[in-house]
Prior knowledge:
Pfam families: NPHP3_N. With about 375 residues, this protein is an alpha/beta fold.
Amino acid sequence: xxxxxxxRCMFAGGNTPDGFVNYFGEILEANTNRIxxxxxxxxxxxxxFMKKIGQDLLDRGYDVEYFYCSSDPHSLDAVAVPDxxxxxxxxxxxxxxxxxxxxxxxxxxxxxxYWNDDVLVANREYIIDCTNRIKDLFNTAYSQLKEARVxxxxxxxxxxxxxxxxxxQRQADLLIRKVFKRFDVLGKDGRARHxxxxxxxxxxxxxYTDTLLKPGMDVxxxxxxxxxxxxxxxxxxxHIAEWQGFFTERSHCPIEPQDLDMVIIPExxxxxxxxxxxxxxxxxxxxGINLGEGIDLSACLNEANLDEERRRALSGxxxxxxxxxxxxxxxxxxxxxxxxxxxSYYISAMDFEKIEQVRQRIVxxxxxxxxxx
Length: 373
């Protein structure tokens, strides 16, 4: 049992130009013992329930992973305990989760068993109005993020036209050789786990990368924004690691959720991380990491390829992207404010004493999976 357990934080889902994108199926990466899926409305105590369970397991020396909510970064979507191979998660919209192996692996905890229907029925009109208002605000925010990506793609295109591909390839090869000091194939299938290390939230951009980098880890920063080839390089790192048989953790970009902004290779104790504003301005400090010599992809840009008109267009696209991103964040913040109001109707209807009894039983059931340690 560890005297000082480790806490890791991340997002299982994110607000993106493609809407809400989630990796809830990756919360436990393999060989799951038990997953508890909580069903219930807003304000019924799901996040507090999970936070208390996480603290109970930390107090007993277990490493804990907290998956925060991108729509409310103070709330949890899930808690996982890798050593016990157990997790508990919120299975309500927008990340609806249902059991794949009911009873054998997953089970549902329904908090609706602990609320007073009469209180909720009395507030029926307010609950419906708030729910619909939240949906409208998120639809607006996602439309603004789609517009932001149009500006982003324009910005990206101008930068891409400036890349000296020969120099880029030389720099990329140098970094690859630093990360993979030996190109040994392990003779096993490479596996991957996906999540968001940073997300677009009501409070702006929230990044939990600092909790994911272990002391002693070799961290290689890649400085480069849209069009610089940074995400292409991260994809290359991930594929080489997979080909060699390594397990990787892959953090996805909130603006291009199909692409990566960080790759961690635990067996090499190494991470390659994209640094670009406004999402990540610097490598996290103070965690005893070994900051390796990364690359600055601005050195691969030949800005002479842009005439004055295209320079102005690039700057304009960049500004539009930031403006639309801010507008989307504002609408997500408004949605959270309405969600807080919605929660108040449910809080008044809940029997939290009974929920606390359920929590204590769940903790004891989780601990049974650690008896062989």
